[in-house]
Write a structure and sequence with these properties.
Elements: H1 7-13, H2 60-73, H3 76-80, H4 93-111, E1 135-142, E2 147-156, E3 162-166, H5 168-181, H6 184-189, H7 192-196, E4 198-199, E5 202-203, H8 204-236, H9 243-271, H10 275-311, H11 317-320, H12 323-345, H13 350-367, H14 369-384, E6 392-395, E7 398-405, E8 409-414, E9 419-423, H15 424-429, E10 432-434, E11 441-449, H16 455-471, E12 475-487, E13 492-500, H17 505-525, H18 547-562, H19 573-579
Antiparallel strand pairs: 1-2, 2-3, 4-5, 6-7, 6-10, 7-8, 8-9, 11-13, 12-13
Helix pairs in contact: 4-5, 8-9, 9-10, 10-12, 16-17
């Protein structure tokens, strides 16, 4: 019978403040010594035992349970009934039996966790434990010299029926076990109520010692951590960089916790608590150490991410946009590993859990299809870099500045100062116009002059605006265009096109404003004006058409018709070739003619 502590055992048997305990290592039965045969042979296993109504020693499980309950109640008179004292003299059996029962209770508290549920409830005992039919193994105590087995034996009872008691060999080993695992000189000098009285099956003196230890450790941890802080600050102050200062500031809290847990662990070893309490305390301190290390790693990830963000700014801003995703992923990985370690520590089979997650991964992926789609969308945005954090862009019907590219969505601050969250799967499929990637900003405008403007006035305005675009230091001369583009319903239209040498939109607005004001001056200097939708009525006598010119035009058309040379609906090939280049361009007076 193994003394492995299973999960059901520590849930049912011991509850120290609702805390968890670890598993004990398995230990096979080892016989330290052989015992002489009993005075009288037990009845055969097939015999039906009489009912032991008082002590319920009819099976190994009930006998061990009764002994433990008597120990927890401090009733050593009752506990004596579960010891085979036939080798003790009858006159000493009462006092010696109580002393041995008390010592055995303390030894079990300190050295062996007994789980009665693992023992047989058959009056004949376990049949497949490798022991004789009248013996069962309760557990094995690892002593300094050699393992010592604790056995229960089937012996004749007072009424002749077979009952189960701790064997004579085990009773004979109790004094030696108590010398090694007893309370020692300090425990012997404590008041009886502190040793015998129990709260939640734990002796009162252990609760008092635990409270004193916690207060002492807290004070020492504060003092030592402050001393360590002074030493570390003196060391990091000598370095040129500030990174080590920031790392120490964020890990100072977890380090204080680590110091406290280490001191508490050493203190519990010195106080030598009972086996059950020590197992619980060990499990708690293991969890606290794991929490402290997890805390340190999470803080270090935050500091490393912050340093990386400071490093990859400016031209490498696209790398900085990856950092929030990497930080969250790293922290999530640390937390998941910590949770798995906790589950492993409290006895769960993590390998089967991971295998179960692998099998259920497909179902989870199908259920979270949209979420996975958004995650891949975030990877696409980060790797393809259509926009980066801080870029101003237009997507769909929205415009704004990208503030964060998350695992599920991208957050954009609009011009109305609201935040729009767009799922990454949708955002990555949109047509995104990134204004922050421009190397210059286009300036395009159409101005309309009044129809009263003469052709030479219009030429003056075109030349002077062209001169303005070429002379302005914030405009790119290639290309910079000014063209008369059409006759509008109310105006003579001039199109102005140029690129402003800036990527800052506020600066662009200021430059455009300056150019527009200068164009107004050019139009005013040319004696023209800007048109606006209007109608002008002139009250004068109509001079009519020029009759002579009209008749000349009619005669020319008649001559073309008679010669079959009218260019309608098509132009004759020969005449089209002859007409090619017959008009001078650039026109007479143009400065461009000097280069021809």
């Amino acid at each position: 019978m193994s003394n492995v502590v299973r999960k059901r055992s520590w849930r049912r048997r011991f509850a120290l403040g609702g805390l968890l305990v670890g598993l004990l290592q398995s230990a096979g039965p080892t016989h330290a010594q052989e015992e002489p045969p009993p005075a009288a042979p037990p009845p055969p296993a097939t015999a039906t035992p009489a009912i032991d109504a008082t002590f319920k020693r009819v099976a190994p499980r009930t006998a061990v349970t009764g002994f433990l309950e008597a120990c927890w109640a401090g009733d050593y008179v009752r506990a004596t009934e579960y010891l085979d004292l036939r080798r003790v003299a009858a006159v000493e059996r009462e006092t010696e039996g109580q002393r041995l029962a008390r010592q055995m209770c303390h030894v079990l508290d300190r050295a062996l966790w007994v789980d009665p549920e693992q023992l047989s409830d058959d009056p004949a005992g376990a049949r497949d434990d490798g022991l004789s039919a009248r013996r069962d193994l309760v557990g094995t105590i690892q002593t300094a010299k050699a393992p010592v087995t604790v056995e229960i034996e089937r012996v004749p009872g007072e009424n002749g029926a077979a009952i189960w008691k701790l064997s004579q060999a085990t009773v004979a080993k109790i004094p030696g076990l108590y010398d090694e695992f007893g309370y020692g000189p300090v425990g012997e000098r404590l008041p009886a109520w502190m040793v015998e009285k129990r709260l939640w099956r734990v002796p009162v003196w252990e609760w008092i010692g635990l409270l004193v230890l916690m207060v002492t450790v807290t004070v020492l941890a504060l003092v030592l951590s402050q001393l360590l802080h002074v030493i570390v600050k003196a060391i990091v102050a000598r370095t040129e960089t500030r990174k080590d200062d920031r790392v120490w500031e964020v890990v100072r809290g977890p380090v204080r916790l680590l110091v406290g847990v280490a001191l508490f662990r050493m203190g519990t070893a010195l106080l030598a608590f009972s086996f059950s309490a020590q197992r619980v305390i060990t499990a708690i301190t293991d969890l606290l150490l794991l929490a402290a290390f997890t805390w340190v790693l999470v803080r270090v990830v935050d500091v490393a991410a912050h340093m990386a963000e400071e490093r990859y700014v400016g031209p490498r801003k696209h790398i900085a946009s990856l950092i929030p995703l990497v930080r969250r992923t790293s922290k999530g990985f640390v937390v998941v590993m910590a949770v798995l370690a906790v589950l492993q520590n409290i006895g769960y089979d993590v390998s089967s859990l991971i295998a179960g997650l692998g099998i259920g991964g497909l179902a989870v992926a199908l259920a979270a299809q949209k979420t996975v789609e958004h995650v891949f969308g975030s990877v696409t945005i980060i790797t393809d870099q259509p926009v980066r954090v801080g870029d101003f862009c237009r997507f769909g019907s929205w415009s704004g500045t990208v503030e964060e590219v998350g695992l599920r969505s991208t957050r954009v601050r609009t011009l109305d100062r609201t935040v729009v969250s767009v799922p990454n799967a949708q955002f990555s499929s949109l047509e995104i116009e990134n204004f922050s990637q421009r190397d210059r900003i286009r300036l395009i405008a159409t101005i309309g002059l009044r129809y009263e403007t003469s052709p030479d006035q219009l030429r003056f305005v075109l030349v002077e605006i062209k001169r303005l675009l070429l002379a302005h230091p914030k405009l790119d001369p290639q290309p910079a265009r000014v063209r008369f583009v059409g006759f509008g319903p109310h105006s003579l239209d001039i199109e102005i096109f140029a690129y402003v040498l800036t990527t800052d939109f506020d600066e662009f607005l200021a430059i455009r404003e300056d150019i527009y004001l200068r164009i107004m001056e050019v139009v005013s200097t040319g004696g023209s004006g800007f048109a606006f939708p209007s109608q002008t009525v002139y009250w004068q006598r109509d001079g009519g058409l020029d009759r002579a010119r009209a008749e000349a035009a009619e005669r020319q058309v008649e001559a073309w018709r008679a010669a079959e040379a009218l260019w309608l609906p098509t132009v004759p090939v020969g005449e089209a070739t002859a007409a090619r280049g017959s008009i001078e361009y650039p026109p007479a007076g143009s400065a461009a003619r000097k280069r021809v």
